[in-house]
Amino acid sequence: MGYVIDLPQQVAAAIEGTDDTFPVRRIYCIGRNYADHAIEMGHDPDREPPFFFQKNPNNIVQDGKFPYPPHTSDVHYELEMVVALKSGGRNIPLESAQDHVFGYAVGLDMTRRDLQGQMKKMGRPWEIGKAFEHSAPMGPIVPVSKTGCLDQGAVSLLVNGVERQKGDLNQMIWKVPEMINYLSEYYEIAGGDLIMSGTPAGVGAIQKGDVMIGKVEGVGEIEVVVV
């Protein structure tokens, strides 16, 4: 038995310090996971059940370029720490959730904010604002054996040399083990899955020619040019 079309290429993320790559299966993104970002988006920051949306694996871009997307005039940056899973399952206990982490990366959840806003008003899914081509720039994955378990550390984003976002991983409402535990109650998560862990306050629009430099303490930084 053969395939009627060519198999799509497996999306794989670079791993720091090796020529090996990390095959990407799914991308889960948690919404409003920093209280200050929840406030700036007009929501109550009290700890409510988390919610997730997805990007597609082929939304990842690793060449340092972000092509400005069509049908929008309001594209926003959102700096995030990305969590890469080496294993998974269903109903993963909180106390063992961290054991499934392979490593961490610096990423950006690029958002067509105007289109996302239209979908919110109409009660429709967000994919058109979130899951478009090149919407997930990310750097190489750094194995947890090098970083240790990250539950604190400065995160920041500079646009054209001006700091626009600043926070700390310890400000996340839902910590990494809690996200893994919660996701596994609703999905069968697996090795190859990525979790984008939320963004601090300061999100804003970018224009062609802008240079974004995102940093996560203990992981590294990425530089992305808007083209």
TrEMBL record:
Domain Fumarylacetoacetase-like C-terminal spans what residues?
A: 27-227
Q: Give this protein's Gene Ontology molecular function annotations.
A: hydrolase activity
Q: Which UniProt keywords apply?
A: Hydrolase, Metal-binding
Q: Which InterPro entries does this chain map to? A: Fumarylacetoacetase-like_C, Fumarylacetoacetase_C_sf
**What Pfam families is this protein classified in?**
FAA_hydrolase
Name of the protein: Fumarylacetoacetate hydrolase family protein
Q: Please name the source species.
A: Roseibium polysiphoniae
What is the taxonomic lineage of the source species?
Bacteria, Pseudomonadati, Pseudomonadota, Alphaproteobacteria, Hyphomicrobiales
